[in-house]
Each structure stands twice: as C-alpha cells, then as structure tokens.
Amino acid sequence: MYKIMIADDELIERKAFRLMIQKHFNDLELVPDAATGNDVIRIVKQYKPDILFLDIQMPQKNGLDALQELTEEINNSMKVIILSAYDKFEYAQMAMKYGASDFLLKPVHRHDMINVINSYIKKIDEERYSNAENENFSKRINMISPHIENEIIYHVINNSKTFMELHLYLKALNLEAEDYVIIIVKNCKKILWPVETVAEVSKEITHCIVSKNLEFGSVILLPINQQTEKFDSISWVMNYAQYIMQKLKEKGISSSIGISKFYSETKSIFECYRQAFVIGNKITGEILQYNENDIGSNTNYHSFEYNTLIELVFCGDEEKLSNSFSEFLRNLMILNAISQSQVKQKVIEMFIKIDEKPFY
C-alpha cells in the first residue's frame, strides 16, 4: 500500500486529482488534503505519505517554504512532486534544492499524472527492497560478527595473515581506518573473567574488535580514524584505556593494559600485537604504551629457557616439562616475533639436541 497526499489551495483541483487517482489506482491510500502551507506540514508529519503533490502558490506558507520544513520526511524517502501554473526555471531549481523529486505544470494532464505516480511507485518499491536487503545483510553480519572478530584476533596472534588479507575481514565489519592500535588487557589476578566483560566495556565508547577471554586476558584491535593531530589520537587511546581499567575495577577486576604503537597497512599487525604483549607483561595494575627504549633483548632469556627445557626432559618431571614447554612456545612466538614454521624448526632443533645428549 502506498499513501498519497494532495496539497493545493483550490478545492476543485484537489477533487479532480482525487477522482483521477481513485479511477486509475486501486492500491493507493489518499490521506487528507491540504489547502495551506501550514496544513501541509501538519498532515505530512501525521500521516507520512509516500508521495506528495505540492502546489507552490498557497496561503500562509507557499509550497517551497513548507518544503524546507519537511527535510526529515524527504530524507525518509517521501517523494515530492511540485505543481505550478508558472513555467519558471527558478521555481523548479529551488524545489529541487529543497528535495523535490519532480516538477509538473498545471493543469496536469491525466497521462502525466499516471506516469509520474507509476514511476515513483516503482522507485519506492526498489528502495523498500534495497532497504530490506540491507537490513537483512546487517542482521546477518551482526550474527556472524563475533565469529569474524575471533578469526581476526586468531590470525593476529598467530601471525597467519597479512594486513591486506585481514583487511577483507575489517571491511566486512565496517572497521576500515587510517591507523590501528592493539591493546592487551591483562588479567592481574589470573582468575576467570565473565565472558563478555571486556567486550562490553570496550565497545561502550567505540566500535572495535575484542577477543574471547584468553589465558592472559583479552586482545582489542582498535581502529583509529585520525581527524586531529597524532598526539590527540594517542591521548584519546590512553583515555580509552583508562576508562576500560576503571570500569573493570568497578566490577572487581584488577587489570594491566599494554598498548602498541599505531600502525597502518605498511606495518605488521603481529609486530604490534607483540609490542602490546611485551609491555603488558612488564607492568602490573598500570597502563603503558610500547617504547623500544624500555624493552631489552630477550635472546639470553630464551637461550636459558631453551637449555632448561632440555634438562627437564632428562629429569623426568612430566608435569613441569609440559607447563614449561607450553610457556616456552608462547613466549618464543610472541617475544621473539617468529612465525609458526620457525617455531617448528626450533622445536625440531631441540629434539635433535635431546637425541644427541648422552643419557646418564
């Protein structure tokens, strides 16, 4: 069903329009007519017609003045066909400027009126179909977005996709941005957080991607659309992190927050994840952004851990070995920023050394 309204100061014109419409269209609802500009505004806002035939010359307010006050209704897809007895370009130009869809000269011929109505009914149908499709698409995206978010975080953590590959995921979630930053919210007390806690708090302010709760806490991928200087963006991110920490504190959760540098598609997402992870492990109950000058080399540490694992193999303490090996693999990938294939190579090297070591 489509609603049509006629606005003209001449009663005979309004009656003639009504008769033509009722004769040629069965699926149209004629809402009350308007004889003045003020009536136009009142009736349009009350009945929300799909198509409005609007005369320019009317008392109180002319049609163009009334049109200026109906911006919201026009934006909501109401079609306005201007009626005028004067073939003046200025009228048509102003009418289009204020959102009119078409312009007809009076007296309006029957076939012109029929063609115009059919044309705009078709456009309304197309818009309704498109809007319905977009709404269904948005609903589907909302349903699968948690899975896409988890997929993105998985690839960030495991360094298994390039930025350009991840960009397709980000585009699907409408998260394209000039820059991004990785934030790791570390669980200080090593207790299980409610599943949605960090996600709910993080998304109260802005649209972002949040991981499921991981062993060490949660990972946030935050898009940054820079409208201001870089300094202001950094300040905003720090305030955002403080907000998250405060909200978690109100829920009885103690946290530390590590923040990576800003990055774009020219930089490695995994490197920024590593930055946030490293800085998050250096603090307790604080917020800190990564700075190379604050981070020392981890080579000696991993050399020591590597040898310790080999010794544990020969000690026979399976539980301690299992826990230490898991920690070793995680730190090897994150702190040394190496890929999964490189990790496999390191593990093979360790097994070779174990096999070569004499057993006593």
Description:
The protein has 360 residues and is of the alpha/beta class. It folds into three domains: 2-108, Response regulator (Rossmann fold), CATH 3.40.50; 146-294, 2-Layer Sandwich (Alpha-Beta Plaits), CATH 3.30.70; 299-356, no CATH class. It contains 13 helices and ten strands. The protein has helices at residues 11-24, 37-47, 63-68, 71-75, 89-97, 110-158, 163-172, 197-202, 230-250, 269-281, 299-315, 318-335, 340-356; strands at 2-7, 28-30, 51-55, 79-84, 102-105, 179-187, 209-210, 217-224, 255-259, 287-289. The strands form two sheets. Strands 2-1-3-4-5 form a five-stranded parallel beta sheet, sandwiched between helices. β9 (255-259), α10 (269-281) and β10 (287-289) form a beta-alpha-beta unit. α11 packs antiparallel against α12. The termini are far apart. Mean pLDDT is 80; it is low at 295-304.
